[in-house]
Design brief:
- By secondary structure, this protein is of the alpha/beta class.
- It is built from 9 helices and 15 strands.
- It starts with a strand and ends in a 5-residue tail after the last strand.
Length: 337
């Protein structure tokens, strides 16, 4: 059996280019005792993998040249030597950009068919992005009813979920996004109380106008100047959740903006904490069950950008890092009914 995959061909400098990736066909290993073979249907493009491509040290090891690009997947088990999984089971996993994945079952989650929840949701709003929003906001942000929650990259999979959960918790949700199309969607479809277009004018002043009582919780997916503008508008004892830094990922370490206004942390008694969602892995099941209920009753909405073919993944990834995508980017890599 042969299968295709996309691997790291060279380490990118700045914004990745198509030449940094290589599509290849390789032999597919067959499962031995305790293993399953998964034929993937969908693969995602994830901004958090950008640092691994450059070889940076982080909570995840650097990706080696020739390794498949990481990403979440939904696939069908086509061969099984594991009694916990049967041929035909649909599972969410993390096999990356490749047609087939071999696993002993760890990290695989069976997906039950639900007419109100598409399979793709399990690598989006019910996958790492949604879980990041859920635990980052509830456990680190700890918003209280009546407080103001500001979120950057609000039209993304994480940001849109943060805003909706904030509203469910009785908070005022304010989003930062780029372009009128995204801002209108957040206002009219998702229900944000206010939306700021970061393309228009001074962001610090715009946040001040949208959050006159200050920001109690800032959920940051962008970093850089957006983080600086939010810090300048934090309320007393405000909490800052660092989920992502997409504006900094393509810059060498020496060129990154950093945080200048540290003095505000003293006067406003601010707290800032980083988030790695896998710290909450034992609680994923309960969170997914709760959020699934929100989707079924219409309280949690989401948007996806689905491309066709494995070849589309590099451009999806590049578009994600440059702000061109609108919704959770993923590719359907084989036919599925």
């Amino acid at each position: 059996m042969r299968g295709r995959r996309i691997v790291l061909a060279r380490r990118p400098h700045g914004l990745p280019r198509p030449e940094d990736f290589r599509l290849e066909t390789v032999d597919v290993a067959q499962p031995v005792d305790g293993q399953v073979l998964v034929h993937n249907i969908f693969c995602t493009a994830d901004p958090g993998s950008r640092g691994r491509l450059s070889g940076e040290k982080s909570y995840a090891r650097p990706l080696e040249l020739g390794e498949p690009i990481e990403g979440s997947t939904v696939g069908e088990i086509v061969r099984s030597s594991n009694p916990k999984f049967a041929v035909g089971d649909i599972v969410a996993g993390a096999f990356g950009w490749q047609e087939y994945g071999l696993s002993e079952g760890r990290g695989l989650r069976k997906i039950a068919r639900d007419p109100k929840i598409p399979l793709t949701a399990h690598v989006g709003v019910l996958g790492i992005p949604g879980l990041t929003a859920y635990f980052g906001l509830k456990d680190l942000g700890r918003p209280q009813p009546g407080e103001t929650v500001l979120v950057s990259s609000a039209a993304g999979a994480v940001g849109a979920t943060v805003g909706q959960i904030a509203r469910m918790l009785g908070c005022r949700a304010v989003g930062i996004a780029g372009g009128e199309r995204k801002c209108r969607w957040l206002r009219e479809e998702i229900g944000f109380d206010a939306v700021i277009d970061h393309h228009n004018g001074n962001l610090t002043h715009a946040i001040a106008a949208a959050c006159p009582a200050g920001v109690n919780v800032f959920f940051d997916n962008v970093g850089g100047e957006t983080l600086e503008a939010a810090v300048a508008n934090m309320a007393m004892r405000g909490r800052i959740v660092i989920s992502g830094q997409v504006s900094e990922y393509n810059k060498p370490a020496a060129e990154r903006t950093g945080l200048r206004n540290v003095v505000a942390f003293i006067g406003q008694r601010l707290r800032m904490e980083g988030l790695v969602v896998f710290d909450y892995s034992k609680q994923f099941g309960a969170a997914i069950e709760e959020m699934s209920g929100w989707i079924r009753d219409g309280r949690l909405k989401f948007r996806e950008e689905i491309a066709q073919g494995m070849e589309s993944l590099p451009e999806l990834f590049i578009g994600l890092l440059s702000g061109r995508n609108f919704g959770r980017p993923l590719a359907q890599i084989r036919d599925w009914t």
